[in-house]
Design a protein that fits this description.
The chain is built from eleven helices and no strands. By secondary structure, it is mostly helical. The protein folds into two domains: 6-164, no CATH class; 166-356. Helix 4 (132-155) packs antiparallel against helix 7 and helix 9 packs antiparallel against helix 10. The chain is 70% helix and 0% strand.
Length: 366
């Protein structure tokens, strides 16, 4: 029999339904918070409120509405949303402790609680220490938290409890391609966060070329010439490192598209026509194309704040979706292994019964 901690239980009770709904609400609001944070960064208003946890000396919840103007509006709203998500995560963790029997789901809830606390501390230190590098980690933790909330929501869903995510050996063969996609998406996230929080504008202002070529010259002389031209156009100077990061980001996007295309091809070879993997991988591919288009549009618009935020938000959805797909593929594999073990055990039990409940013995050798 499958263990309770490693497989979904068959009974889907009302308390777990409430836990699932609460998790979904928290997930949706977290995505809103991500978009809010993206606007703060894209509009360059991250230090509009220079103190933390207060807001211009006020308790943040008592800050006068009349002073919510300009950049303060975006930054202060982001803080209030973040506080709300923190409270919701605490409630979610407590609910999980009382309503969930699966240890790994409880641990996941504990991980979410630790993550939201860490995120709050990183956000505060970003303000008090005035460190752009902390903004990079703040962005990475935020999207990781969102992706894990998606997994938690899936694990408390009715379809998971009913075993619809398990026991699919052909689909499980695709799990490593899914994992490769997750790793590449994470890599893209880190590169993008590093570029965004450098606050140097567009490192490469043209697309699909890079300063008119495929691979621009990045010698000191060439970069000096590039920066002279940028200053003449009222653009901030850049660095060879920032240009390299942008080129790596573009190359990573192409590589990720290749992995997803391979996943779609392998799914066609291994699975029937209307299998769920076809839908999920197709959506993944479509979203990647849309993400590339948003990235190009962001460059052509000279990094318009709304487009840059949309690019970031879709990136968060891509990370969450990729992790959720890969999680499902690994669940399918894990459950398949357990089913094989169960069948083997049942085979041994049948053999034991055929021997009249006597232990099997080896033949004597004289």
């Amino acid at each position: 029999m499958l263990s309770q901690d490693s497989s979904p239980v068959t009974r889907y009770s009302l308390p777990v339904t409430l836990l699932h709904v609460f998790a979904l609400v928290t997930t949706v609001l977290t995505f809103v918070l991500l978009c809010s944070g993206g606007l703060v960064t894209s509009k360059g208003v991250g230090m509009s409120v220079p103190d933390w946890p207060t807001t211009y000396g006020y308790n943040m919840f008592a800050f006068p509405l009349s002073q919510w103007v300009g950049g303060v509006f975006y930054e202060h709203t982001h803080r209030l949303l973040a506080s709300g998500i923190g409270l919701l995560t605490v409630i979610l963790s407590v609910m999980t402790f009382f309503l969930e029997k699966r240890r790994w789901v409880r641990r996941l809830a504990l991980g979410l609680l630790v993550g939201v606390i860490l995120q709050g501390v990183l956000g505060g230190l970003r303000v008090t220490l005035y460190k752009d590098e902390l903004g990079i980690f703040h962005a990475i933790v935020a999207q990781t938290f969102f992706a894990l909330l998606l997994i938690f929501s899936a694990a408390t869903s009715r379809s998971f409890f009913e075993g619809k995510w398990s026991g699919e050996a052909p689909a499980a063969k695709l799990r490593w391609l899914g994992l490769a996609g997750v790793v590449l998406t994470y890599f893209q996230l880190i590169i993008a966060a590093t570029m965004r929080h450098a606050h140097l504008g567009l490192a490469i202002p043209d697309f699909p070329t890079a300063y008119g070529t495929v691979l621009p010259d990045l010698s000191e002389t060439a970069v000096a010439t590039i920066n002279a031209a940028r200053l003449a156009q009222a653009m901030m100077p850049t660095t060879a490192t920032q240009i390299e990061l942008q080129l790596i980001h573009r190359g990573g996007a192409l590589l990720l598209m290749g992995v997803v295309l391979l996943l779609m091809i392998r799914a066609r070879e291994l699975l029937p026509e209307r299998h769920w993997v076809h839908r999920w991988s197709f959506i993944w591919g479509i979203l990647l194309v849309l993400q590339a288009a948003l990235g190009a549009w962001t460059i052509w618009s000279n990094k318009a704040a709304d487009l840059a935020t949309a690019h970031m938000a879709l990136g968060a959805l891509l990370l969450g979706g990729a992790l959720l797909l890969t999680f499902r593929l690994f669940v399918a594999n894990k459950m398949e292994e357990q089913m094989i073990c169960r069948d083997e055990n049942e085979g041994r039990d049948e053999a034991y019964e055929e021997q009249g409940n006597e232990p099997l013995s080896l033949p004597n050798v004289s």
